[in-house]
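We store sequence with structure; for instance:
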Amino acid sequence: MKNFIILVRRFLPNYKRYVLGNIICNVLSTIFSLFSFGTIIPILQILFGMESGAKEYIDWSFSSSMGEIGAALKNNVSFYIQQYIAEEGASMTLLYLGLFLVVMTFLKTGTAFLAGYFLTPIQYGVLRDLRKSLFDKVLSLPLSFFSEEHKGDIIARMTTDVAEIGNSIMSSLESMFKNPIMVVIYFVVLVTISWQLTVFALLLLPIAGGLIGYIGKTLKKKSLLGQTQTGQMLSQIEETLGGLRIIKAFNAEHKVSAKFEEINDTVRKTFIKMNRKYILAHPVSEFLGTFIIVAVLWYGGTLILNTEGRTIITAPEFIYYLVIFYSIINPVKDISRASYTIQKGMASLERVDFILNTENNIKQRPDAISLPKFNEKIEFQHVFFKYTDNWVLNDINLTIKKGQTVALVGQSGSGKSTMVDLVPRFYDIQEGSIKIDDVDVRDIKIHDLRGLMGNVNQEAILFNDTFFNNITFGVKNPTMEDVVAAAKIANAHDFIMATPDGYNTNIGDRGGKLSGGQRQRISIARAILKNPPILILDEATSALDTESEKLVQEAIDNLMKNRTSIIVAHRLSTIKNADIICVMHDGVIVEQGKHDDLIALNGYYKRLCDMQSF
């Protein structure tokens, strides 16, 4: 119940009117069920010729005690039924009692339907909200989070865990909203009929509740383990799909298959244990319910048979009591079953909350300013940065004036890509500052900061969509004329028009229908359409063949015109004309200048050039 209260406080504030409607309908449905059950007493009295004991009408008022009001109402209903039997006959009275039962059953089922009607928007609305919150959180998290977590496990949390929350928690809402109301109302009626029987039954309930609670706790542990292992399995699937080319090239299918078989079998064993405990819930609760019913039947029989002249409870009333008590067993069993499913769902919710509660260390300051234009320069001032323990950048100082082209060269791992990732705040530095027009990037609104920049990476990141939508990605209200112009500048228009549907042709998953050079030119066209004042090129031509490189380099040259450009390059032939070439080694700028000046130094840059043929 504690977990359920936490869930209600967390997920249901936006659905108050639906919750209120559901509760009202559940109360009405329970009350109507009591009226329908109540017809059993007069029907039995008529069928077996029993006297009700109501000799006269008893006056009552709302100022009377609940016991007096209940006794008066029961007496007066019996009195009127006796009078009607005397006037119309037993057969006609049975007919009207039957019609009354039909009407009450109709009202009961109708209000039960309305309760479910109000509950459905809650169930699916909460899941929609949870998926949206999770997706938005994933979009907002820094890149460092995804370098530490398995993508497959993140996908598992966003899909299978959310589905488990829907199946386990949301499907239990009906039980947790409806059944406690039924239990409370039925319990009040049971106490009114016979407090002795009810006290006796209550003495037996803690035994059942304790056993059910123990099974539920162990179920949560198994469920959490199962969802974690499912995430590991999806991670391996994701890695396998992404690395199929290498797996086949190295004949490693058997090795990968054996690894998957091992984790797949581990998941099977965990879920077998978990589901066996879940399946145990119904027989245990049914057995305990039957045991309690038998105990109540025995004790109630002794109250009827051994009254010694005192009428504690009549036989029809006892049957009515048993009907209500048996009706209370199912709601109690449903509550216990719901507690099982909630425990399963809570394990998945913990995994989802891991993402939702992850702190985003790239925060926008409350007093961050807008910077719609880039006017003067970008400055690195004594910049130090590390991912974990070791410094990746050490005391970087660099000034890039507007309109300049600055190239970063050096061996792999020297810190070139890290340096350009710091400008749009994909990561935050530990010491020093990076300024644009004398404003620290941490003092600029993140949306405005990244709006000043366009990125073209070594791996062209495209989406399973059309040429048009990939080129216009992130651009508001683009026109076809602008898209065509950008594609022409990027040397992409001709091969786009050669496809069956032109700009409306789908390019496949990650642009899989295109060559590497074509993918790169689409990404360049995207940057051209955005028209950013600052351009970041991270080894944009390093993975291309000579012919594709020539076309892409021409597109890049068109893109760089009248822009401030920061280029990360391995192929030094592409940056000979840069205004500034920074040579990096172990996170430090060891040389800086133009191509000819650096060659004359006969240092790091000269050795890099000697290793490449121009």
Notes: The chain is about 65% helix and 10% strand.
